[in-house]
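Record filed below.
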Amino acid sequence: MSVSEEMDDFRKLTPQVSAPQIVSSFDELEVPQAVVENLILKHLAAYPKSDVLELAKHLGIVTHLIDDILADLRKKAFVEVFQPSSQSLFSESAKSHVRYALSEQGQIKADLAFKKDAYIGPVPVSLRVYNAMVEAQDLRAQLITRPDVERALGDVYGAQRLVPVLGPAINSGRALLLYGHAGTGKSFVAARILNSLNTSVYVPHSVYAAGNIIKVFSEQHHKPIDSAHNREVISLKSHYDKRWVLCERPNVQVGGELTMDMLEVNHTEHNRIWIAPLQMIANNGILVIDDLGRQPMPVATLLNRWIVPMEYNYDHLSLPNGQQITIPFVLTMAFSTNLDPQTIADPAFLRRLGYKIQFQPLIEKDYLNLWADLSNTKDLELLPSALECLLSLHSLHKVGYFPCLPKDILGISHDIIQFEEIEANVDSTILQRAWDLYFTADEHGESVL
């Protein structure tokens, strides 16, 4: 069994809080009925001749709420009814297969709804309910221990030096600064921090705030873990509110492409959907700002954006229409950089970062073990002459034992072997060629990227 398979076997995620209960009235929904009405119109425009069960599946609410709105839409002549012709109009089976479509007036109404907001999906949860759920799922409510972190870093060489500092840092909930030479594994480790947590969280598809629907659930950043939740039949006793998705804790990473507008609710004329900012998507999880110092905006501007959220655990979001909302800021922030921290942030901000964790090259034993494991993974035979050549090159060029090197240089070695159509043996000649191709002529070991 591989390390990753063992990790999956041991890591049994359980929800940190009770599942959100299915709401059965508009008062419990805490969302204006007009919002649900517009969503039904947009769904009927996208999925013509849908029945109530299909609408319930798309909207994530119980059928009798949809029935109430459909009855009102029929009175307004916005929808048309299509009865099944092969059954009695009065049978229960016929009623369940009644299909609805937009009338000409209904299509006009749906077009207006799309122009205002192109969101189509489950009914949003209210901002109040969202805020309460995020605060209840605070990862600091269930502290981790040394075995949790050791398991999370089970595939990280040199982890024995990181476990004692990462564990307390995660439990604190405070921001982290991961710094050190490029290629020392900062991003690799940051991606595994959440593996130490044994709880899952509920993430809403969207949130209704200040008269707008903000899309929160992201296929890119959220990993659902409850496939049974997507079943069409809703049981009030055995299912929870389908407007929520049970997920692994979010793990959001962004690097040099980060811009300031990604940290605010984003709305453009092109897509007309209000998209949650990265920190809202990362709530109850981790947000990693990788390659700090390489973003297009000044570092001071970026860091100043986080002063209030990190200090008070809430964030003020400015909406494109000029309104402002407040949401919890309940996540672990990790800044990663290969630059000198003293050169990218002033002392006042550095003090707000609770933990500064330096990443260093591996010791020789761990470094050679990493080479051996990766060569086996790539079905390459690493000959003793190659290891002798490798250590000699490190000594000659004064290159540290960076954990990025085995993967990169073995990859080049594999490419050379395939091109030359020779046996999959990495000898000193192959290794020297790969080394020379990896480093530029003037680097002399001063950088590995």
